[in-house]
Design a protein that fits this description.
The protein has about 425 residues and is an alpha/beta fold. It contains 10 helices and 12 strands. It is elongated.
Length: about 425
């Protein structure tokens, strides 16, 4: 706003949002702004330090805008200072007429476009400086007439505001009812989907059981007949026939492992977690005691650090350790000696565990495939496996609210990490 010096404006309004918006608008245009929450506070502040302009709402506690205007225009120290009403959209013409009759210089109905509001205030300031707002000769309404009009205007405004509040409450009740019905509908849909999912899981379990039975039966027959040929008719078979029989039986065994792994993977979703404290060091040691017997005379150095205890399902977490350690044993084939390390540390309510090895490793460009079902990063003739073990690890860890990832380099070993909740109060 223009002028030789900074314009000092006093704002009176009990609505903090209105005060903030007006203060921001006026300060942005170089005005000095002071704030009051009611008419009495504004009157006291103005008598202490007269502003260049006052802007006030009407309905305020302690002293409303009309009473403030009457006091303002009757005070010789303040009456020549421009007085502007800035009031809400439920204002009617009677309010405007009454406010102007009290000596107000402008009555602006909010909300007003910022530029238009500023232009109006600028006009009032210019009129004041030009001496066009003198009120000394303007007659003041008699007390009786004033109070009659004052009471009628306030009653009208209060009725309008009550009507507005009732409308707002009605809209709120309507919205609440819509939300309630929507929540009920959502709850019904969730219940329906849950029931459908439970039914689908039951059907899946039945299907996987049937598939397992139907697949394993012919595999047993194939392996059985191949075994009979190998044992009872060995003399009549040449070396190539014997090799082919061994290959058949080897592939049958691999197929059985694959079926078992797939069944294990599918059952993880329906397995009910039984959470308790887990001694991770003892669990890793127990897994190693079972696995080391199958190392076939290989020299494998396994180091189990002092692992922080975890919270989870002991049988499933043991399976995670078994899959990761057996993987490390498998992929360190050809290393002399093979080195495997199991470690862990606390990390903000979770524990981070790892299984590292000095084995074949892999290219990190393929890491996104690592934990998928049937995903293998090495050829079957290099390392045996079904490609399901790491998918099982990921599923178990995720069901425990943790995450799993890996780091590796080709021919430089691999490290697999996973997180579990720590065995501490508040983390169960």
């Amino acid at each position: 706003m223009g002028g030789q010096s900074m314009i000092r404006i006093l704002l009176a309004d009990d609505n903090e949002q209105n005060l903030y918006m007006l203060e921001f608008l006026l300060k942005k245009r170089g005005c000095e702004v002071s704030l009051s929450r009611n008419g009495a506070e504004a009157l006291e502040a103005a008598r202490r330090s007269p502003p260049d302009l006052v802007i006030t709402d009407i309905l305020m506690p302690v002293m409303d805008g009309f009473a403030l205007c009457r006091q303002w225009t009757g005070d010789p120290k303040l009456r020549d200072i421009p007085f502007v009403f800035y009031s809400a959209t439920y204002t009617d013409q009677k309010d405007i007429d009454f406010g102007l009759s009290l000596g107000a210089d402008r009555f602006i109905v909010k909300p007003e476009e910022p530029e238009k509001l500023v232009a109006t205030l600028q006009s009032v300031i210019e009129d004041s400086r030009a001496g066009r707002l003198r009120r000394t000769a303007k007659p003041r309404p008699e007390e009786k007439s004033y109070y009659q009009q004052y009471n009628q205007v306030l009653v009208n405004r209060l009725e309008a505001k009550m009507l507005q509040l009732e409308q707002a409450l009605a809209e709120q009740r309507f919205s609440d009812e819509k939300i309630r019905k929507l929540n009920e509908s959502l709850a019904d849909q969730v219940a329906l989907r849950t029931a459908e999912l439970e039914e689908a899981n039951k059907e899946l379990e039945s299907f996987t059981y049937s598939v397992s039975h139907d697949l394993k039966a012919p595999l047993r027959a194939i392996d059985g007949f191949a075994g009979i040929l190998e044992e009872e008719h060995a003399r009549s078979l040449d070396d190539e026939a014997k090799r082919l029989l061994r290959t058949i039986r080897k592939n049958v065994a691999a197929m059985r492992r694959l079926i078992d792994d797939l069944l294990g993977f599918s059952h993880l979703s329906s397995h009910k977690l039984v959470s308790s404290a887990i001694d991770m060091s003892a669990s890793a040691q127990a897994v190693w005691e079972e696995l080391k017997c199958g190392c076939g005379g290989r020299k494998v150095e396994l180091v189990i650090q002092d692992l922080p205890p975890a919270q989870g399902d002991p049988s499933l977490i043991r399976q995670v350790l078994a899959n990761l350690i057996s993987n490390a044993v498998k992929f360190t084939a050809g290393r002399e000696p093979a080195r495997i390390e199991v470690g862990g540390e606390k990390d903000q309510g979770f524990n981070r565990y790892y299984v590292k090895d000095n084995g074949a490793g892999f290219d990190m460009a393929n890491a996104d495939r690592l934990f998928g079902v049937f995903q293998r990063l090495h050829r079957a003739d290099e390392f045996e496996g079904t490609g399901v073990g790491l998918a099982i690890v990921k599923r178990i860890v995720q069901r425990h609210g943790g995450r799993v990832w890996a780091q590796a380099q080709p021919e430089a070993g691999a490290a697999f990490f996973f997180t579990l909740r720590s065995d501490e109060p508040g983390n169960s």
